[in-house]
Structure formats: structure tokens, C-alpha cells
Amino acid sequence: MAKKTTAGTTEKSMGKAGLSVKDGIISSLKGINEIEAEIVSLVRNTVSHTLQATGTVASEGVHLSKDVVKGAIAATEEVGTGLILSTKSVAKGIVMGISDVGGDVLTVSGQTVKGAVKGAAEIGADVGLVARRAVDGVIEATKEIGGNVEDVAKVAVGGAIEAAGLIGNTAVRSVKDMLVGVVEGVREVLSAAIPQSKTTGSQKIKAASETAERKTEISRSRKRGGE
């Protein structure tokens, strides 16, 4: 009840212009979600049907993922925008399509992220954001298909940084900065990818404190024994 009252009060205070913008944004966001779902479905079906037709899942999976990423980038070039928006959906669709036909999700995940980062650099898009979206996409797909999220996350993050390394130091920094959020968001998944975490540091401080306390207690015991 309290939430409804607050929402009603806010709507009254924002006026017609505010309400118009609010409704427009909600409508746009709903439309974006629908578009993303359509892209995932399109890519997933394209990948799985193509691999079923060729009958060579093992050898064609990586090659096909590169083709699909190129197709998404080509579409972006023609339309003039949308790579950052579509990257997550494309990456997710590729992984799910590969999974549908029993392909190597791990290898394809890494190649998909690499292709997205390389393609972003070629058309002048934000490499860091594209890397983040691609990694998000493969992780989300892996969760949905019940795959090994930890392994896929490591390969995806590694693939993004590797691809950025071929572009330059600025790209590497941009990618690493953007992927910090991914690491924080799925820390338990990526603990192996980032060995030194904040938890490790706090544990070291706690251990050092406990050691100091033990030494103090031993010293006091010896003094009491001497008395």
C-alpha cells in the first residue's frame, strides 16, 4: 500500500511532461527487451539449424560463431548503431545454439567474446562496453543451459582481455575496467580468474591480528610464570 501511495504522489508532482517521459521510457524499455529476446531466438535457431545441417558440430562451431558475430557487426554498420545493445543477445544466442546441438560451449564462448571485441575495434565502437555485454551474454546463457559457469566465465574474461591485447594498451585497460563489474557480480564464479580478491586481503589482516594477539598472550603468560 505504501509503495502505491508513494508512486501516486510522485506522479502528481511530476506533471504531464514527466508522465509523458515516464510512459515513453517504459514503452521503449519493454520494446528493447522484446528486441533482445528476438535476437537471441534468431541467433540460437540460426546456429543450431546450421550445425544440424552440416553435421560437423565440433569443427564448425567456432567458425560459425565468428560468422554470426561478423553478421551482427555488419548489421550495425548498415543501421549505424546498436552493436552494444545487440552484443549480449548475439553472444547468448550463439552459446545456446551451440548447446542445442551438443557443441563445445567453452571454446565457442571464448571465440565469441574475442570476435565481438575485435569487431568493436574495427568499427570504432566502445571496446570495453562491447566486451562487457559479450561476457554477460555467454555467462547468462551458460546459467540457463546449466553449464559450468565458472569455466565459461574464466574463458570469456580471458578471451576479452586477449583480444584487447591485440588492439592496444588503452583497449586492455578499458576492457579490464568494464569487467571488474562482472567479477564483482559473480565473484564466486570468477574467484579462479582473479586470484587476489578483497576477501583474501581481509583474511590476511585478520590472521596477522590473531597472530599478534597470540604472541601478546604468550608474553603475558611467561611474565606471570616468572613472578
Please characterize this protein's 3D structure:
- This protein is mostly helical and 227 residues long.
- It has one domain.
- Helices cover 89% and strands 0% of the residues.
- The chain has nine helices and no strands.
- α1 crosses α2, α3 packs parallel to α5 and α6 packs antiparallel against α7.
- The longest helix is centred in the N-terminal third of the chain and has 53 residues.
- The chain is globular and about 60 Å long.
- The N terminus is likely disordered.
The helix/strand class is mainly alpha
Number of strands: 0
List low-confidence stretches: 1-5, 192-202
Largest sheet: none
Structure annotation, total helices: 9
Task: Note the run of SSEs as H and E.
Answer: HHHHHHHHH
User: CA-to-CA gap between the ends?
Assistant: 70 Å
Fraction in helix: over 70%
Radius of gyration from CA coordinates: 25 Å
**Count of distinct structural domains:** 1
Instruction: Choose one word for the global shape.
Output: globular
Calculate the mean pLDDT score and round it: 77
Beta-strand content: under 5%
